[in-house]
Amino acid sequence: MLCCTAMMDLGSELGVPPYVFYPSGANFLGFMLELQALHDEGKLGDLAELKDTESEMAIPSLEKPLPCKFLPSVVVEKEWLPLLIDNTRRLREARGIVVNTFLELETYALGSVSVAGNPPVYPVGPLLNLNSARPEEEEEEEYKEVMEWLDGQPAGGSFAKEQATEIAAALERAGHRFLWSLRRPSEMGITGVPGEYENFDDVLPGGFLDRTSGVGKVIGWAPQMAVLGHQSSIWFGVPVGAWPMYAEQQLNAFQLVEELGLAEEIKMDYRWDGGMMVTAEEIEGGIRRLMAAENDEGRKRKTVKEVSEMSKKALTEGGSSCSSLSRFIQDVIDNIS
């Protein structure tokens, strides 16, 4: 795994060739390789300061310059950046890097990292485990209720009260069907486990649940993988809204919206711990653009459907990810001492 590169030394001692599984996509891999190179050359500025400017960065894994306001949260946090730089430096010592992506999705990014001096990159994704979405026994009834509600819909995080109010206003004004998993923020922040609200009326505008009962459903815990695997998700060719929170999500959002055309922006420069409030107007605008894209048979809808089909084909025998996995396995066999 990415943050376990120290184990590469132990593997070498045991005669096991060191390979790294990279759970993020090729875009973030190329981004980190570039940051590490700039850091080691003494050319990396203060990213925490750059994120508040209108400047841009040229990143080899992106076709377009990256506005610094979209720098990933994880690299502008000074306690995390040294760890990421060190781990990325160790990546260059690996025999290969297995990445959770597929060639047809990130052709440009994969080309940028598959150059002399870098380890071979093996795109084997998308890695999904939709069949493991069953809940624990005590959650079975809620699971059934949520899935029954989803089945009745056409195919196609945790927030404080102030932000939840803005989301509620946007959902109500937009008038589209929704499933909202609303949970109480952890006192430990983004790294903590969110809790449950005892009464949604305590956090939502008065009368919201009654007014939206015919088109929406507000729940606490959600069977996330089952919901994402339902016919109303991107796996089945539906556009998504980009509202990044933390980690590398800002970079992912930029790629999905600006480069791949697979998502609509809600607020791409949002940071969960930055004290930023996304207004009801911004959220409503994103929802309306998103639903227009979903209901339109134009370019974006066509692009999303094509990518959905390519993602499935990549995993079949002879597909790009299946072939990449075969090359990876053969390389491991050839390099075992």
From TrEMBL:
Pathway(s) this gene product operates in, as recorded in its UniProt entry: Pigment biosynthesis; anthocyanin biosynthesis
InterPro entries linked to this entry: UDP-glycosyltransf_plant, UDP_glucos_trans
Protein name in UniProt: anthocyanidin 3-O-glucosyltransferase
Enzyme Commission numbers on file: 2.4.1.115
Organism, scientific name: Linum tenue
Family designation: Belongs to the UDP-glycosyltransferase family.
Record-linked CDD domains: GT1_Gtf-like
Keywords: Transferase
SUPFAM superfamilies: UDP-Glycosyltransferase/glycogen phosphorylase (SSF53756)
Matches recorded under PANTHER family: GLYCOSYLTRANSFERASE
Keyword Kinase: no
GO molecular function, one term: anthocyanidin 3-O-glucosyltransferase activity
Entry-linked Pfam families: UDPGT
Gene3D superfamilies xrefs: Glycogen Phosphorylase B
Catalytic activity: an anthocyanidin + UDP-alpha-D-glucose + H(+) = an anthocyanidin 3-O-beta-D-glucoside + UDP
